[in-house]
Amino acid sequence: MSEHTMRAVTIKEFGGPEVLTVEHVARPEPLPTEVLVRVHAAGINPVDWKTREGQGMAGLQTLPMILGWDVSGVVEEVGFGVTTLSPGDEVYAMPWFPRAAGAYAEYVTAPSRHFARKPASIGHVEAAALPLAALTAWQILVDTADVKAGQRVLVHAAAGGVGHLAVQFAKHLGAEVVATAREPRHAWLKELGADEIIDYTQQRFEDVTGNIDVVIDLIGTRDDTDARSVSVTRPGGLIVAPNGVSERLATVAGQAGVRTTPFLVEPDSAALTTIAGLVDSGEVRIEVERTFALEEAAEAHRLGETNRTRGKLVLTVTS
Ligand SMILES: NC(=O)c1ccc[n+]([C@@H]2O[C@H](COP(=O)([O-])OP(=O)(O)OC[C@H]3O[C@@H](n4cnc5c(N)ncnc54)[C@H](OP(=O)(O)O)[C@@H]3O)[C@@H](O)[C@H]2O)c1
Description:
- Pfam families: ADH_N, ADH_zinc_N_2.
- It comes from Streptomyces brasiliensis.
- The structure is a single chain.
- The protein is of the alpha/beta class.
- The protein has helices at 46-52, 124-129, 131-144, 161-172, 186-192, 205-208, 225-228, 247-256, 269-280, 297-304, and strands spanning 5-11, 21-26, 34-44, 65-66, 70-78, 90-93, 107-111, 115-117, 152-155, 176-180, 196-198, 212-216, 233-241, 259-262, 288-293, 312-316.
- Strands 3, 5, 6, 7, 8, 15 and 16 form a 7-stranded mixed sheet that branches. Strands 11-10-9-12-13-14 form a 6-stranded parallel sheet, sandwiched between helices. Strands 2-1-4 form a 3-stranded antiparallel sheet, with no helix packed on it.
- Helix 3 (131-144) packs across helix 4 (161-172).
- It is globular, with a radius of gyration of 20 Å.
- It binds NADP nicotinamide-adenine-dinucleotide phosphate.
- The site of NADP nicotinamide-adenine-dinucleotide phosphate has 32 residues, from helix 1, helix 3 and helix 4.
């Protein structure tokens, strides 16, 4: 282990936000084909607090652990065999997922090819907000559902981290986008390209839309959203369920001839390069609602867990 130390948000036991504590720990060193990256900002995702409380990816972790998967930073050192990155390069990534990446820290190491060049037109805070949410939206729309121009895509939780990117990627692919969100988010989602926006607190979405080809269900069983989505989906259409396919959804969808699939995001530097291009061309925007210092990770989790975030929350690590 390195003689250098670094600040990191560690958890020694699973539990509430209070288990997040900043400590000085050994700085990791890059193995052959890995890079050491100085983290400027670390994005926060629901899987972070789910894992913190013993759900999410907790079963795959060993305690103590450093939470966090989304990184934007600068390459500090490269291990033997790294050919595509050099010290000083600005990079972003969701390395190692679902193994621990330790992004809530001043440094991370990971295989160099988990990283992509950060979008040049945005800062580290915005770049750190992108990887997990953007890869989720992209891999669902492009790899899982193969969305084509003219198809109708319904995005539940369109105002959140994944949702607001899914709206923009679906538009980029030429789809017609239907979004669910509370009314204060509607003008913003319209600007991002949503064609129909439904205030789910005022109307049942199945009363006002239909003939959907692909549903991105970022809600799941809450309010029976997953099973209710079947009635708006055309026979042969697809419901993608990142929170899992419930038994009820499988049954109702099976009866209606609607396909369902669970989904888990994967590291994907090629997709991150494509996404960086869309950001740099101005076609896609990333929304960061608020930033927090490493020491404020618990407060950030408390806010995230209210499930009301517009876009993303990000930890600033090094300026
Ligand atoms: N399997 C995977 O690979 C994977 C990857 C990424 C995310 N996920 C999961 O996907 C979900 C969304 O992730 P995220 O990062 O986008 O979360 P997020 O940013 O925390 O989502 C917050 C948003 O949810 C909206 N919302 C809450 N209840 C709603 C409802 N009943 N209908 C419509 N919108 C609602 C809120 O919008 P309003 O203010 O309009 O209510 C808020 O903007 C999480 O459960 C996460 O764990 C899974």
